[in-house]
Design a protein that fits this description.
By secondary structure, the protein is α/β, with parallel strands linked by helices. The protein has a five-stranded parallel sheet, with helices on both faces. The protein has a two-stranded antiparallel sheet with strand order 3-4. Helix 1 packs across helix 6. The protein is globular.
């Protein structure tokens, strides 16, 4: 586990988000953008994922913690329950899962979990070793869905998964030094090692808002 108490980690995270958000705004819209250091550059995807919110029944799940991997399960449960209630197909139901704040690392592959000791940082233990996880134990352990991995959840069931770029930037910076990387290099590495199919959103709260604008009802994903 991180040497910082959970409450301190949370305050640090929120403080860095505030500072990072100010830099982000300056970086995108200030006429002085050219003077901002490279470490403040924020690579983000577009909003193409919003166009995939096409089902008649739509819900967004807002995840801020690992919550034992239940975020993905909630999305699948929503699809299955609506299908059963209305005798519909997958294409009639859309689930969006937003991974922001401390849930964002669930969208990273095993290499990032090992290199940046994310199990220790997030206080997540691997049930196979009872030690801090050095792999993404949530990717292939969706509650109630044995054998299903996140890539299948997205590709086979049409669930839209988004990762918060603000959380990615802040959290990668918090663990960079311990992994022997600069904050900028860590951010780039995390971005390059998102799980296939994951959409990088400008921020998690932005993704929640865009989903609701696309007529998704809201559900707290933990």
């Amino acid at each position: 586990m991180s040497s910082l108490p959970a409450s301190t980690q949370r305050r640090t995270f929120l403080g860095r988000i505030t500072a990072g958000a100010a830099v982000f705004v300056a970086g995108r819209w200030s006429s002085a953008a050219a003077e901002i250091p490279r470490t403040t550059e924020v690579p983000v995807s577009g909003d193409e994922w919003v166009a995939h919110i096409t089902g008649k029944h739509r819900q967004v799940f807002d995840c801020t913690t690992s919550n034992m991997g239940f975020g993905a399960a909630f999305g699948l449960n929503f699809i299955d329950s609506v299908k059963e209630a209305y005798k519909l197909t997958d294409k009639d139901v859309t689930a969006v899962i937003v991974y922001r704040h401390f849930s964002m690392p669930l969208m990273l592959n095993d290499n990032m979990w090992a290199k940046y000791k994310l199990g220790e940082f997030l206080d997540v233990k691997d049930p196979k070793t009872n030690a801090p996880a050095t792999r993404n134990i949530f990717r292939d352990n969706v509650p109630g869905r044995p054998g299903m991995v996140y890539e299948q959840v997205m590709a086979d069931r049409g669930v839209i998964m988004t990762a918060c770029n603000v959380a990615l930037t802040v959290l990668s910076g918090m663990v960079a030094q311990k992994a022997g990387a600069s904050a900028d290099d860590a951010r780039k590495e995390w971005t390059a090692n998102l799980l296939p199919g994951v959409h990088l959103a400008v921020s998690g709260v932005y993704a929640v808002n865009k989903s609701q604008e696309a007529k998704c009802t809201y559900c707290n994903g933990g």
